[in-house]
Fold:
Amino acid sequence: MSRQGWRIALAAALALGGLAPVAQAETPDDSLADSQYWLGSRGPDELELSLLSASEARVGETGEVTLRIHNPTDSAVDNLQVTTRRSDAVGSTTQARQELAAGSFPYYGPSITAGELKPGESREVTVAVPTALGEDSTLAITEPGAYPLLFTLTGTRDGQAASFAEERTILDFQGERQAPEKTRAFSLIYPLTAQVDVVPGDTGGQDLILESEQLPQQMAPGGRLDQLLDAYLEHDLHGSGCVAVDPALVDAADRIASGYTVHETRPSIAQRPKRLRDSWFSGSDSDRGEPGTGSEDAAAWLEKLKSVDCRMLLPWANANTDAVARVGNEWLTHEAVEKGQETVERVLGAPLNTTLTAPASGTSEHKFTVPFLLADNSAWAGEAVTFDASLGALLAQTGAYPQTTGYSNPELRYDFAEDSEQARALTAGASISVAAHEAEQASEGERDGVVAKLPNYQDPAAARAVVEAAQRLLDSGHMTPRPVTSLPMETSEGEPGSPYTNPAAFHDAEITQVRQQSRYTDELMSIMTNDPGIAMTRYQFTVPLRRDLLAVLSDTGRTSLRGFRPAVEGSRTRLEKNADTLRELRASVSLIPPGNVYTRVSESSPLLIVAENGLPLPVDAHLAYDAPDGSTLNTPDSVHIPAKGSITVSMTADLPSDADRTSLRLWLATPSVPTDPEGHLISDPIDITVQTRAGIVSVYGAGIAAALVLVLAALFRLGKRKKKHSRIVFSMTHEPLSGARRRIVTPSPPAPVPEKRAPRGVVAVDDEQEDRSGLKGEAQANASEASGEANSDGAVVRATGSMAIATMISRITGFIRMVLIGSTLGPAISSAFGTANQLPNLITEIVLGAVLTSLVVPVLVRAEKEDADRGEAFVRRLFTLAFSLLATITVLSCIFAPQITRMMLPEDGEVNAIQATSFAYLLLPQIFFYGLFALFQAVLNTKNIFGPGAWAPVVNNLISISVLVAYQLVPGSLHPDAPSPITDGHVLLLSLGTTAGVVVQCLILFPYLKKAGINLKPLWGLDDRLKQFGGMALAIVAYVAISQLGYVITSRVAAHADDGAPFIYQQAWLLLQVPYGVIGVTLLTAIMPRLSRNAADGDVKAVVRDLTLGTKLTFIALIPIVIFMTGFGIPIARGLFQYGAFNANAAELLGLTLSFSAFTLIPYALVLLHLRVFYAREEAWTPTFIIAGITLTKVVLSLLAPQVADSPDRVVILLGTANGFGFVAGAVIGGFLLKRKLGSLGGRAVIATTIWSVLSSVVGLIVVYALNWALNLVLPASLPAVVNLIRLIVVGIVFVIVTGIVLSRSGLPEVINLGRQLQRIPGMSRFIKIENAEAIEVEEPEQLEFQPIFSVDAFNSSPVPPPMSAGIVRGPRLVPGAPVSDGRFRLLKDYGSAPGTRFWKAREQATGRVVSLTFVDTTGEAPMAPATPAVAARRSAEVSRATRRLAEMELDAVATNIDILSYRQGCLVVADWVKGTSLKTVSEDEDLDPRAVAHALAPLVRTTAAAHAAGQVLGIENRNRIRISTEGVATLAFPAVLQSNDEETDRSALASAISLLVESTTPTPEVLQDIASDAEAGEDADLEDIAHRLSAFAGDGDDGEETLQVPVEETPRKEDPTPAPGFGGRGYSGSGTIVLGVLATVFVVAMAALSVWILSQVADEQTSPVVTKSEASDETTFPNVPAVLFKDVKSTSVPEGKNVDGSWTTKDTDAGLLLSIDKPTQLHVLPLEQKDSIGAKYVVYGVKTEDFDPKNPKSGTLTELAHGSLTSARQDIELKKKPVAFDGALIMFTDMPKSGSVTLKEATLVGIPTN
Structure:
């Protein structure tokens, strides 16, 4: 090749130095493009002449040299001749280099002819090298020494003579040498380095991946590194030698010895977290390449290296230290020259002999912290040890890899590869002799010895020649050994660096790129933080990236002319790959784009954004932003993102108020420091848009206002009616009286209130005038006729049939909706969406739903029948109240949506709380429409209009289904971890679509309301009939609140455990509700209303009978369902829900949850039976105590669930079980309370039913198990979910048939009732024939009683957690006929209430005396803050004392015979009954006689004045206390002096009574008006005056005085029923009930704990959700570090017990493979590769190999980690993360695939080793 060709090659190589683009990258110095910096005087040859071997050269003898001639040209050459020439012996290494570069070689030796050589032909020739003087053509060498030899090749081409090639070398001719006068010291530096071709992009914690096997091959026997080490170890240098090792080489050898793979690329190192593989870096083994084969060779090589007598260092990766210094990065410099010592000493297990470091360049322009070995012709800063520069340059140009040193004279440079490798090796050996001779000849002080440094990248042959020459000199005594550690430190003068230009110097473009990447690496490290729970540190994670950069700056290969271009190309490639890695790592720390516009409710509303970290260490970053002028983002000082996780960042913004929207740009930056407050960018910026308050007001405000206007307009139009103008003539008959004044006429007897069923044995007594007109208008008459028609039997049948169909369709569509939610969104997003969608129901239920169902509906029915306007005013007041309350609650809920959502989902849980909050903002408006729907439905039900309320949920479900289908069709989808603001398109679609379904569900009822003539005009006020239920409403609200508290805690525990747990828990509960709603409720429909009436009537025997019957019906229907669900939970879940994103794992969890919680149905049904009894007796707080026990048990067990669960994802199974045990506690508490009241509950009568039900179910289960086993033999292992559903249906039908056949043999009458219900299924009546006489006869329920059964829909659009209400309340405990005061009195009629008091007419059972009862409750005066028992008792005593003092005064206008019965929470005041009429009823007559009014009021006023004068309060704060006696005197009929009563309340109530009666007089005399006015403003001193004025006006004492005429109360015709035993008896006290609840809770928790323990001892680990016995005994704590992939896995066939290398095949079932590893490990994943084995069924067990015999596996005693079927060629089997350490895994195959055999090509393990 010509000189010009070399220049072109060099320029091309340098051109490749422009690596990845950098800003204003400098180009290489133009002078470097001149190859003269590389080439000196010699140029290339035309032919090739290579020295192959040479005999030992000795003075006076003839040696031989073998040469090889090769013709690479296209033309033949002939007359070839090889001539030997020499120069004089060289006396210095400099002279030697000069001779090699441009020597004249004046002495000629012999020549030989080689003949002709054709193109491409080669030939070997042997040339004699005579040295003796007497021989022909001798070289005449008489003195020993190093002689340069020249072999020339000449000949002719095309007849023209030419010189074709030459070969130069230096031979050391041996001979007798005179011993030197003074020996010189000798030291040898023997470098060991190699190109470590680790695939770029390595980070800490990863396995080693090499690009090729070249490095292990160099360490293998006979490899380059092995030969170099052997050459050193095989020669005795007498301590003068020292091996300079490359730390990168030692580190790589150590890692190779531990196992490695070979691949061209590296798998992604910063993946998003994956379930069950959060910390596993790679995806599969194919990403890592093929396993390497050189581990043993590397280990052996390291053992050799440990035997070296002296070790020192090279820079890491033989990096150019000047280039490293130019980069200017402290961490990079530390790795290059400081970190190597630690690495080498750690691997070799011994300290270095010296910290001296030998850079490849031999020069240094910068000062470092460690001493360097530098060329003695260079200058340096500080101190250094020097070596012979000329000798170093000469040695560098020898060997197989000749190098051009930067400190060498450019004039002596040439293409050293022009000489053959053997020629250069001979020169290397001779150079040591030359240097020794030069030292000997040096004057004293000029040179005290030789320091020989071999090139850092050397050739074994040249190295062997050098050490042989060195040993020869040392052995001969010509040199004395000097350890390298004894070399003196020197200083220098002048500019540090080389005196010559280094042709291999790194140019600025390369340095700039390395500087950028090193800075990026520092920034990456700076954002990461060390975690004590993670073994790897941030420095360890990033150090491989820095070492990649040192490899870029390596001098290896670069200092060779022919290696420069490949080295530059390799550096460029490594830089590019390293840059890709850095980009990937930086991108793994990112902000997740929110999608759309943030909407702020207020200026303080937080902006939420998710920061994600894909790195294996936590990250601390600074949130930087760019905002328009006037905008400020209040970001946290630091954002801490957990390893392989994400965090929600909350911030506020100060934005311009005049802008509707503000755009912000955010990114993550390095932490702020004083020198760099903004930090450097880490993540890609994201843009967000914030809609400010002005925008919200303008957009949402307008929308909400428009919506409210539309709703109000619709309601107003609906309520508007045309007024009918008609004259209604009232006929009043008055008895003529003498005189000018008239008496109040006695009204006609009132029309009786129609009641469908009066309580048995109680005569309804009504002594009040309610219908004074006696007339009905035309409209009311027509309405009555319509009502009668609607209540006809045909109408009831039609309504019931329509409701049944609607309910069936609603459940079907609701089920489809729930399946679509799971399959469309997946468990994680479904949990967020489902939880948010649950909130409106929870809030509606606690605010309105439970009270509306339990209290308002019965009162609504009463108002519709009793009121003259048929309840219109009541409905209007109720609607106005509900509208206002719901609107307020809805607005408040939307405002506090984040807090409400966080109540359900903790921020540190697995469920995306931010996403759920976004859903909640748009779903919470459903509260308003759910509440109105419930109210409208109740109103329509009172009109016997049931269809619309039953069909409306169907429409809701259809809309929701359409929304979910649309979600699947629109582009993109929600991410489980994304913040997803409310403006995200998918959030809007799901939320608004679902809310729209609820809105439509409500609006559907409007036409029917209008058609029914319902007036919804606003009317403020609260009906008195509702006030009396205030305490019961509070109890019901408390009941619901406690139940919801349990649900909230369960939801939080589930969300903490797994992102899909809340959704799975909800689905499991809904599946349980299906059989109860379809069968259980239907069977109990007839018994429930009768049970309620009997309880209200106090009929104990009837209640016990109904309870027993209800229990029998429950057991006969639900026990088979419980057993079937327990046995087939997983198939049920897979068949019903395993579609789309709801994968097999989620379906299996749902199935296990269903199996372990199926027993809940039995105690749940019993609890609802018990609650019916308590609510019917108006014991409203007893159900609250029961639900408190249920909730307490559930909460305790739920909180314990994560502690005993064997893995987080299985916590939900235990949560379902905890729910069931909670109802067990409720059933126990309710049973004890009822037994206390009722005596025996008929438990023995249920035993036969239970035994038959269980036995028949077990028989059915055995049959279907056998059927299922047979189907498994026929059907393939992997089936579509639809096929599984069909299979489930077949199995279920067979179970029902078999169980039914067995039950039919029992002869139990309740079985007949079950058959009747099954007959209702279309088509079943053909197969099921029932004899009616055999069944238990129950009455047909009324439509109002039957309707709630259909309205409770388990698969409604938003199901409510269990149980929220017990159904319609059939009456309070204080009802006509109820016994009170331990049966002493029987209640007759309710006369109203006041705060803290209730007024009743009653009969004393023993004497028949009619009395008034005033019930005083001292705990209910402040229902929002009830009094403590002590306070209530103190208040009760005070009321008793005050009332007793009043009774002792024996005042005229007070009821007589007052008796006070005290108890701790109040008292009962008994008095003689005041015959007459209530004050309210009398005042309704607008034609009262004024004198009669004055006569009636005067005694009461006088009595009040007398009481006040005596310092006593009368206690008449409420007019309901006052009755007008038959003598026409106003009397305090219900005496009781409350703590809140005082003289002022007496005067106020008395003034109100005076005004009420005075205003009813016609005409009203002025004197009475004055008296009424004075009474309102009067003082106690005025009461006597008012009484005197009233008496004077009435004319008391005159014969003609007028009195108010009132009706005389009739005595009931029938005797009151005798006190019924049971309900009249004493129950538990409040404290006793609490103690009972606590004891029941403790008992059930203990039962649950015992169940868990038994389960842990005997359960199958495949399905057990708890830690089993074997696991608990071996429980181990594991470090919080990333899981690792084990490569050194030993495979053993089972049961053969043979080692397996390569693939493994078996055709036998119950055969498998044991995978063993060295360290005990928590196993996570079993990755495998199989061939033709899809469909094979496997079971994976954890194994402790020391206790395991492969030939006798006994798998039944092992811990199961997974089971399933092979589904793909490469499959990652996810294992249960047991708290147990195993050092092996056994995969057993229990069923063969269709191919008949299983072949595993490869299998390994992933896990976390123990500490």
About this structure: The chain is about 45% helix and 15% strand. The mean pLDDT is 76. Residues 793-866 form the longest helix (74 residues).
